[in-house]
Amino acid sequence: MRLPADDFGRVLWSRTAAPPPPTEPLRGDAACDVAVIGGGLLGLSTALALAERGARVIVLEAASIGAGASGRNGGLVVPSLPRIGPEQAPPALAALVATGADAVFALIRRHAIACDAVQSGWLHPAHAEALAPRVAARVAAWQAVGARCVWLDAAATQARMGSTRFHGALFDPSGGHLDPLGYTRGLARAALAAGAAVHERSPVLGGALGGAPGGAGWTLRTPHGSVRAGRVLQATNAAPPGLGERPTAVPLLVYQLATPALPASVRRAVLAGNEAFSDTRNNLLAARWTAQGRLVTGGMAMLHAGALTRLPRRLARRLEATFPALGAVRFEHVWRGRAALTGDFLPCISEPSPGWFSVTSCNGRGIVPATVLGPALAAFLATGDRAALPLPVTKPRPVPLPALARRLPQMLLPLGDWQDRRAARR
Ligand SMILES: Cc1cc2nc3c(=O)[nH]c(=O)nc-3n(C[C@H](O)[C@H](O)[C@H](O)COP(=O)(O)OP(=O)(O)OC[C@H]3O[C@@H](n4cnc5c(N)ncnc54)[C@H](O)[C@@H]3O)c2cc1C
Fold it and tell me: Whole-prediction pTM value?
C-alpha cells in the first residue's frame, strides 16, 4: 500500500502551507542523545521538546517533513479520542487529550507558527436521535477529566451547523482547525531553532545495538551516513516497530477532498462559526472550512481501484443531503493518506529492543495526541523516568492475521453504512 511518489502534489496543503525550513540529507557520521526516526507531528513535537530540554537530538525523515499522515490530514484539532470515551483510556492520557487542543494552539502561538490555525471549536453531533443520550454522556465524561466541552441541544446544534440532520452535539470551544502541513513544517522550524538537527531524504535502513559511550545505545544507518544515539524514538506511524518486526498497527488509506472556494453567503449558512465537526457515524462525516473558503471533508473507500473518481460523487451527495445551502457540490482536490489503527483506538508505546521505543499515536485523530505526547516522551527519553509517560511502555503487540486485518475496515464499510442509515431512520 505504498503511496505513489508524486502523490504529495495532490495534497491541497502542499499549495497552501508556508515553505519548509531548508534541510540536507544526512552525510557522514553523527552522534546524539536521542535519534528520532520520522519527521511527522509525533517525531517533531518530541524533538522540539527534547531540544528545549538541552538534549542533542537528530531527526531522520525518509522523505520530506510532513510527507506522511501529518501533512495530508484534514487538520481538525480534536480534544478527544476516536470512538472511545475517556474512561477507556489511562487517566493521565485522558487528561492530556482533554486539554490537548489548548496545548496545540498555545504551542502555535509560542513559536509563531504560520498555519492558518483557528480555535473556533469542534462539534461532535449525533446523526441519529437515538445517539443523542450517548453523546450527552460523553460530554459529562470528558468534563470530568478536565475538558471544556458542553452539550448543545438539537436546536442549537442545527443553528450552528446549518443542517437539520443532527440531534444535539458535544461542543468543545478549545478545538478548531489548521493547515496540517504548515503546522508540521512549523514544528520542524521550531525544533531546528531549539538546536535539533533535521535531515530529510534520510531513510533509516536499519539499526545495530551499540555505538553510544560504554557500548550502549544504537547505531542507525541511512544511505549516506550513520547516527550513534543513546536512545531511539521510532515515530513512523504504521511502520512495524524496530522497522522489521511484525506490524502492531493496521494501515488504513483515508481520502480527503476539498471544494473550490465557495461564496461568503454559503460560508455564512454552513458552520457559520467556522467550527470543525466530525459526527457519530461509523463511516464518519467530518468537515471544516479552510482559510481560502474551501470546504474540506474526507472518507474511506471499499475499493481503492477507481476510488479517486467514485468517492467524490458519493461524498458530494452526502454533503448535499446534509447541508442544502451548499447546492451542487464538486471537489477540486482529492488526495489520500495512510492512518494507523491500533486495536484499542489508543496510542501505543512499545520497546521492541532495549533503548528503542516505537510510538503509534494515530487512529485517525493524531494532531492532539502527537502534540501532547511529545513533551512527555521527551521527559522520558531524557531521564528514563517512565512516570513521565501517560501510557505504559509495552512489548510490541503484533496485529493478528495482518493481511486480513488491513482489509477488514474496508470490508466492514458497507455494514457500518447500513448501521448508520438504520440508526438515523429510528
Ligand atoms: C487522510 C487522513 C486524515 C486525517 N485527519 C485528521 C484530522 O483531521 N485530525 C487529526 O487530529 N488527525 C487526523 N489524522 C491523523 C493524523 O494525521 C496522524 O495521527 C498524525 O499525523 C500521525 O503523525 P506521526 O508523526 O505519528 O506519523 P506521520 O505523519 O505518518 O509521520 C511518519 C513519518 O515517518 C517517516 N518514515 C517512515 N519510515 C521511515 C524510515 N525508515 N526512516 C525515516 N523516516 C521514516 C515517514 O516518511 C513519515 O514522514 C488523519 C490521518 C489521515 C491519513
Answer: 0.96
